[in-house]
Design brief:
Elements: H1 3-13, E1 16-21, H2 28-41, E2 45-48, H3 56-69, E3 74-76, E4 90-96, H4 102-119, E5 122-130, H5 135-140, H6 151-163, E6 168-172, H7 183-192, E7 197-200, H8 206-214, E8 219-222, H9 231-242
Parallel strand pairs: 1-2, 1-8, 2-3, 3-4, 4-5, 5-6, 6-7, 7-8
Helix pairs in contact: 2-3, 2-9, 6-7, 8-9
The structure holds SN-glycerol-1-phosphate.
Length: about 240
């Protein structure tokens, strides 16, 4: 089954959890170890990527190490066309909808598309919307951040993504954000869109994941939590709260 179908089918049954592993933050061996623990905690898929210091080498090695320990899909979450791994099962082929820099909206995509084609990687179309505070990705993405108290702006971007034919909308508060995307914003987007909504950034407790679920998200992404010593337990609790 294609990864896109796998995700959509799972999302029809329930909200799913994706574990984000940044190849620049640990050795490939450690990335494999994290993936093994995350799978036993109940995660549904892996995303591999980060905002800075992604090289072809650390990307390929991390993806291979993760694939060594799991059969769950491993999806590349790119920061640009400079590194694309032929070992990933799919790539989020995404546009930073609210970037001021046209490179992030369509330029990197034009550079990357022929590579994705040549390497036969499954592209999964995604609109990526950065909400305050945005953190590092907001800065390097030159995002005109969506204000936290303006859900109608997120709805307008989301509708635009849907009408452009994108498969998913990702609401991103930024990795390490002090709080997740606000509940009212997720709720507003969910009630206006038909496409699945992925929410990430600042989700680090079972309460956070429950809030995001109750607001209507179809998937949550956690990244920073895996940096904790006892992350297996924390991840289990975060995922348990979803089901
Ligand atoms: C970043 O949304 C993800 O793209 C994950 O964020 O690191 O805060 O979990 P955290």
């Amino acid at each position: 089954m294609k990864v896109r179908e796998y995700l959509i089918e799972r999302m029809r049954e329930r909200i799913i959890h994706m574990t984000l592993i940044d190849p620049a933050k640990q050795t490939p061996e450690k990335a494999g170890e994290i993936a093994r623990i995350a799978e036993s905690a109940g995660t549904d898929a892996f995303m591999v990527g980060g905002s800075t210091n992604i090289t072809q080498q650390n990307l390929d090695a991390s993806i291979l190490a993760i694939k060594d320990v799991t059969r769950l899909p491993v999806i590349y979450f790119p920061s640009g066309a400079h590194a694309i791994s032929k070992y990933s099962d799919a790539i989020y082929f995404m546009s930073v909808l609210n970037s001021r820099d046209v490179k992030n909206v369509i330029g990197e995509q034009v550079a990357g598309a022929p590579i994705v084609k040549k390497l036969c990687i499954e592209p999964i179309s995604m609109g990526y919307l950065i909400v305050e505070p945005g953190m590092r990705v907001g800065e390097i993405g030159h995002a005109e951040l969506v204000p936290r108290n303006k859900p109608e702006i997120a709805v307008a971007y989301g509708l635009a993504a849907e009408y452009l034919g994108m498969d998913f909308l990702y609401l991103e508060a930024g990795s390490g954000a002090p709080e997740p995307v606000p509940e009212a914003m997720i709720r507003a987007v969910r009630s206006n869109l038909r496409i699945p909504i992925i929410v990430g950034g600042g989700i680090r407790t079972p309460e956070d994941s429950l809030m995001v679920k109750n607001a209507g998200a179809n998937a949550i992404v956690t990244g920073t939590v895996i940096e904790d010593e006892d992350f297996g337990l924390r991840l289990t609790e975060i995922i348990k709260a979803l089901h």
